[in-house]
Design goal:
heterodimer; A: 112 residues; mainly beta; 6-stranded mixed β-sheet; 5-stranded antiparallel β-sheet; B: 114 residues; 7-stranded mixed β-sheet; 4-stranded antiparallel β-sheet
Chain lengths: 112, 114
């Protein structure tokens, strides 16, 4: 069964700290992996998409990596800010334009 | 500003009533997904369409749920009859079957069945 797990479920850090969110997937035949952000009561905002042929993607202070052999992806957030507080979800896909399988998310709180 | 539009944003209904949720995918996208989000289960796929044809609806309770795409600009999700356990946030997402496809989500419909 294809499953995605995110650890930790919740994380609280002081402002300015660099942090890493973890995502693991059971089926390494991944097509791509997408990281999303969800603010309370809102929809999901796509942050980064990594194709299976890629090792990492960067957008501003965010860097996502993908290691297919170990079944892991990480989202690195540099110099965290209170505005980064949200739930971060990763989702795997196993074919082009295919359905996304989501982890349970990591709820991040960045304290001023 | 291209976005996925869902209506209504909130719906409160009594058990047994029919509920219809609508989604307007981003123009040009050929894949539409319906997800349900609850605290206990997280995000679960209910159904998805490609070029308006249903590809996978295995996550959907067939006896009460139905999903359709009457045309390329409209996707609907119906629940009849609704039950309290259907209370959740229902998200629609759209995408395009290209190498670098991303899924874009709507703001969701928060359904409460009392």
């Amino acid at each position: 069964k294809q499953e995605v797990t995110q650890i930790p479920a919740a994380l609280s850090v002081p402002e300015g700290e660099n942090l890493v969110l973890n995502c693991s997937f059971t089926d390494s035949a991944i097509y791509n992996l997408q990281w999303f952000r969800q603010d309370p009561g809102k929809g999901l905002t796509s942050l980064l998409l990594i194709q299976s042929s890629q090792r990492e993607q960067t957008s501003g202070r965010l860097n996502a990596s993908l290691d297919k052999s170990s079944g892991r992806s990480t989202l690195y957030i540099a110099a965290s800010q209170p505005g980064d507080s949200a739930t971060y979800l990763c989702a795997s896909s196993y074919n082009q334009g295919g359905k996304l399988i989501f982890g349970q998310g990591t709820e991040l709180s960045v304290k001023p | 500003d291209a976005r996925v539009t869902q209506t209504p944003r909130h719906k409160v209904t009594e058990m047994g009533q029919e509920v219809t949720m609508r989604c307007q995918p981003i123009l040009g996208h050929n894949t539409v997904f319906w997800y349900r989000q609850t605290m206990m289960q997280g995000l679960e796929l209910l159904a998805y369409f490609r070029n308006r044809a249903p590809l996978d609806d295995s996550g959907m309770p067939k006896d009460r749920f139905s999903a359709e795409m009457p045309d390329a600009t409209l996707a609907t999700l119906k629940i009849q009859p609704s039950e309290p356990r259907d209370s959740a946030v229902y998200f629609c997402a759209s995408g395009w079957t290209s190498l670098h496809t991303e899924a874009f989500f709507g703001q969701g419909t928060r359904l409460t069945v009392v």
